Amino acid sequence: MSPIAKAVAPLRAAAIEHAVEMRRQWLDGFIAANPPGTNLATKWPRPHGMMPKAQYMQARNAAAFVRALFATEQCGATRRPGEPEVVVGVNQIFIERDRERTAEAMAANFDAYVSKLERKVGPCDSADIDGRDPWRGSTLTVRKADKIETWKTTQILNVSSLGKLFNQWPTRLMTCEPTATFDPDADSGAAFQPML
Prior knowledge:
This protein is of the alpha+beta class. 42% of the residues lie in helices and 21% in strands. It is elongated.
């Protein structure tokens, strides 16, 4: 395990726990907005073939999600279009699987972040990170053989060429200080050259 991975490792469990908690809060709000007795056929209708493709895909995904999340009354062996689909409860198995998928996705995102840092910073002797959240305002200090580098990761809002807003998390080199110090009294004969 690299020094950067060791420095960032304590934040991994907290980031996964935070992601699972945020997803749980969102699901609780969604479930509260669709109490038992809600007719999914009217509130979350299935798509029809006359929709534009993007709208069709969105409606299909939303309909599949709510039907997996909620348990509904069984009106028979088959369902006819327009037949009511009344919520009677919540599918706890789906919620547990959703938590597992959220934790796995966050772990993969965190590992990708560590990999990005390792590629960007390069090999180092030791590393230390300041901050609770690695994506929003963390400072990574690395010591290499001949210098100390400080890298900062922040969250910024950017605009695409199409006018769409999106988040980015750039990691930028803030300072690079040589580890050797210049001693003017030493008779080395060579001029001090900082490595930048």
